[in-house]
Design a protein that fits this description.
By secondary structure, the protein is an alpha/beta fold. It has one domain: TIM Barrel (Alpha-Beta Barrel). The chain has an eight-stranded parallel beta barrel with strand order 1-2-3-4-5-6-7-8, surrounded by four helices. The longest helix is centred in the last third of the chain and has 22 residues. The two termini are 21 Å apart. 40% of the residues are buried.
Length: 282
């Protein structure tokens, strides 16, 4: 099912994100595990790839396996990408039955500059425009509720998001966040500025203390003080951290659904156990 069909329905939807593993031989086990989520009627599974397309081959293998049971949204970035490479990759995705793309600028690889890795496309809005002109894919784009770290001002961040929508994106999916009030202000500001497409919150359940600390550092995301204190108190008890994280993600998700979002996107970290409790309840 394409994004435009999902959006046109009045039905609240859930989706999850996955990434290609480091080793090919682990892909079948991951697919078998995630296939057990089929009863939860996921709208799609989004599949990432490494910086600069470094794991595109494993990404395609993961997509091929998952596409037998689920609709897929494939990530695609501007980094190290030419028009001819896009055309070739889109052909591979079409052959696998993929109809949806998450169009991103992508992270600049460590030790490199934008000039070194951005050629035909410098912004996600340019990639959206090209894909709309050359494919029949439906397109989602990404957003930072706590404002993109490279954006000089919040206003410029909002303007960039609206531009991506105006170039043809059907859906906006956010990065993880842990403060729903931040998301709600972000959501309301965008719509006051004229954004017409749905804004879908991205929720990552906390499953590991050290892991979430690293993710927060990389993503520039704020962890509410009360939640941070609770996690710190139980940091040496992995089961307690998992339970606290799942309880908090469930609370976040219920509140966002009541707020009126069209759907929720869960970051699975490639494990069914990280999202199944949420899919059962939301």
């Amino acid at each position: 099912m394409q994004l435009s069909e999902i959006i046109s329905s009045d039905k609240f939807f859930r989706s999850i994100e996955m990434f290609p593993p480091k080793q090919d031989e682990t892909i079948p086990n991951i697919i078998d595990d995630i296939n057990q989520l089929k009863p939860y009627d996921l709208a799609y599974i989004s599949v990432t790839y490494g910086a600069g397309g470094s794991t595109q081959g494993r990404s395609l293998k993961l997509i091929e396996g998952l596409a037998k049971q689920f609709d897929i949204m494939a990530h695609f970035t501007c980094v190290n990408t030419t028009r001819s490479q896009i055309d070739a990759f889109m052909g591979k995705l079409r052959a696998l039955g993929v109809h949806n793309i998450l169009a991103l600028r992508g992270d600049i690889p460590a030790g490199m500059t934008k000039d070194e890795v951005l050629s035909d496309f410098h912004y996600a809005s340019e990639l959206v425009k090209y894909l709309k002109e050359t494919t029949k894919m439906d397109i989602a784009v990404a957003a930072y509720p706590e404002i993109h770290p490279e954006s000089p001002t919040p206003e410029q961040c909002y303007d960039a998001l609206i531009l991506k929508a105006n170039q043809g994106a059907e859906l906006l999916i956010t990065q993880l966040f842990f403060d729903n009030d931040i998301f709600k202000r972000f959501f309301e500001t965008l719509h006051k500025k004229g954004l017409q497409i749905p804004v879908i919150p991205g929720i990552m359940p906390i499953t590991n203390f050290n892991g979430i600390k690293k993710i927060i550092e990389l993503s520039n995301t704020k962890l509410p003080e009360t939640l941070n204190n609770k996690l710190t108190k139980h940091k040496d008890d992995s089961d307690a951290v998992f339970e606290i994280g799942m309880e908090y993600a469930l609370k976040q998700s219920r509140d966002l659904k009541l707020f009126g979002v069209k759907g929720i996107h869960f970051y699975s970290l490639n494990k069914r156990k990280n999202v199944e409790p949420l899919l059962k309840e939301i």
